[in-house]
Specification:
about 30% strand; globular; four-stranded mixed β-sheet; binds glutamine; Rossmann fold; about 190 residues; eight-stranded mixed β-sheet
Length: about 190
C-alpha cells in the first residue's frame, strides 16, 4: 500500500494515477498512517504550506523513517522541494533525503506553466522515448551531489533525479498516462 501525503496539493491525482496503474494507494495524513505505508508520495502543492501543516506533527520524522528503512519515496514538484537538502527562494532547509539544491518557482509564475517533451532522458532507466512533462510553477534543481542520478534534463537542468529509493521530479508525472516515472519510483532500492 502506497501512501500519498494528503495535507494539501494534488494528492487526489496521485492516488488516481497509482490506482489506474494497478497499484494500491491511499491518502495519508498523520505520522502513523505514513509509517504503515510501504512507499510514499509527496505530491505537488505549495511547499511552504506543507511545512506549516507538518510542523509539530511528527510527519517529517515519519517520512525520514520510511525513506531510511528503504521503502520507495517519490516527491513531485513541491514534494521534490521537501526532499531536497537546500532550498532557495527564500533559503530554507529541506528534509535532506536528496543532496541537491532547488530554487523555487524558477521557471516563472503560474501562467508560465508548460508541457515539455523531454528528449534528454537516461535510456537505461527510461528507454529511448521522449517523456512528456507537465511543469507547474516548478522548482529548478540547480546543483546535485555526485551521488544523485540524473535521469532526465530540461535545457540542461536536472528535472528527474534519484538516489537509491528516493526519486524526485520537478514536473507532474501523475498528470500524464506515461507510467515510466511511476515504475522508476516503485523500483527504487536503497543505496548499498
Ligand atoms: N511553487 C510551488 C512551491 O514552491 C511548487 C509548485 C507545485 O508543486 N506545482 O512549493
Amino acid at each position: 500500500m502506497i501512501g500519498v501525503l494528503a495535507l494539501q496539493g494534488d494528492f487526489e491525482a496521485h492516488v488516481d494515477a497509482l490506482r489506474r496503474a494497478g497499484v494500491a494507494a491511499r491518502e495519508v495524513r498523520g505520522a502513523d498512517e505514513i509509517l504503515d505505508s510501504r512507499g510514499l508520495v509527496l505530491p505537488g502543492g505549495e511547499s511552504t504550506t506543507f511545512r506549516k501543516l507538518m510542523d509539530g506533527t511528527g510527519i517529517e520524522d515519519a517520512i525520514l523513517t520510511v525513506a531510511r528503512r528503504g521503502d520507495p519515496v517519490l516527491g513531485t514538484c513541491a514534494g521534490a522541494i521537501l526532499l531536497a537538502r537546500d532550498v532557495e527562494g527564500p533559503p530554507s532547509q529541506g528534509l535532506g533525503l536528496l543532496p541537491m539544491t532547488v530554487v523555487r518557482n524558477a521557471y516563472g509564475r503560474q501562467l508560465d506553466s508548460s508541457i515539455v517533451r523531454l528528449t534528454d532522458v537516461a535510456p537505461g532507466a527510461l528507454g529511448e522515448e521522449p517523456l512528456e512533462a507537465v511543469f507547474i510553477r516548478a522548482p529548478r534543481i540547480s546543483a546535485v551531489d555526485p551521488s544523485v542520478e540524473v535521469l532526465a534534463r530540461r535545457d540542461g537542468d536536472p528535472v528527474l533525479v534519484r538516489k537509491g529509493n528516493v526519486t524526485a521530479a520537478t514536473f507532474h508525472p501523475e498528470l500524464t498516462d506515461d507510467r515510466r516515472v511511476l515504475d522508476l519510483f516503485l523500483s527504487g532500492r536503497p543505496c548499498a
